[in-house]
Amino acid sequence: MSNTTTAFPDGFLWGGATAANQIEGAYLEDGKGLSIQDVMPHGITTPRTAGPTDDNLKQVAIDFYHRYAEDIALFAEMGYSTYRFSIAWSRIFPNGDDAEPNEAGLAFYDRVLDELEKHGIEPLVTISHYETPLHLAEAYDGWVNRDLIGFYERYVRVLFARYGSRVKYWLTFNEINSVIHAPFMSGGINTPKDELSPTDLYQAVHHELVASALATKVARELAPNAQIGCMILAMPVYPLTPNPDDVMAALTTDRTNLAFGDVHVRGAYPGYYLRSLREKGVELDITEDDRRLLAENTVDFVSFSYYASVCETADASKRVTGEGNLFPGVRNPELRASEWGWQIDPVGLRIALNQFWDRWQKPLFIVENGLGAKDELVEVDGIRTVVDDYRIAYLNDHLVQVGEALEDGVEVMGYTSWGCIDLVSASTAQLSKRYGFIYVDRNDDGSGTLERFRKKSFGWYAEVIRTRGAALRR
Fold first, then answer.
1. Which residues are the active-site ones (predicted)?
2. Which of 204, 224, 299, 393 has the fewest CB neighbours in a 10 Å radius?
């Protein structure tokens, strides 16, 4: 094995990513309202509960709300140049439709930004990351209702006015295409998925896309030096066989994800997407103002998560499905899988980068990528740590492919590994599904001290950053 020969470029942003509901805790502290996550104690594996329950690990999570300074110092120790985090909408507007923002919530993120600035870490802020205020879900049925565009605009105006001079990079919605598969978590849609009509679902999609364009417009008014990006869940789709019907099936499935980037980058719905709506019997309510907003407020860059690829086939008898984040897919017989069934495909990241660059010619930002695994805290030379060579191998192989994409000519802004510190999983609401370079002593039953420990991967990632990728192993 030899080292890579090409370092990543100067200015490449290295860091990690988290979401408020998965790390902050303090779920009702300082005026915060309930979010949809407060009635999702088991992630997407079971229906929502009637109200908060004591078994919801996210109520405390890893207590970042009180420990942010300690955690950001650890990020700085690794050499981060950027940190992606989300703002909890219900900390700022507890119900979502409040007339005035909650000052205590705004002040908390001021303190987080202070700490990042102290360490020279560039903030990358996600405006809405799977935490729609619960009141908006219950009173309005979430993004099905056009009123949410106005509530979201009020929210983003407050954020850009308050933090616009301090935050250069913004993402409007996390994994916006996931609303099709997880309408409650992604879109705050309270109607059960099996009762939700295609018209209501795709109207909600439209409202989110319009709101995203509106946020871009507002940012350019209030924070003209900021860059605004969309964020999509990337999952390359391969034909299971060379049969042209399988190739067409893969293309059709792939386009269900690509459509969201097409609208954000090109400012209009692509023909294939409109055809799919017609075939579903869906006729969207699209106003002329909507069309103008979409056309005139395209994004500066495209960000995405990448965890796995899937296969697709037109042959129903071969549809042996595997797991892959929020999206279903046909298992690839050529790939192995993680402990949670997500197929591991480093080359798929290079494929996604090249596909997106060829398609959109916009700078790309990998804002989630990582391995969820069961870690064991052990003692090595008197120091408590996790010997997570499996995580190092996973991240190394993916970052090597990012380097290959850079050599291909793809413009990649940066890389923020998902769950840079252990957090509560979005899909399963477990703490035992660990992603971080930093082990947090908390368990699925809520026990633990919350003490932080550096894993072996902590030092490895610090060296990768220090050498601008030259320490990666091919």
1. 368 (nucleophile)
2. 224
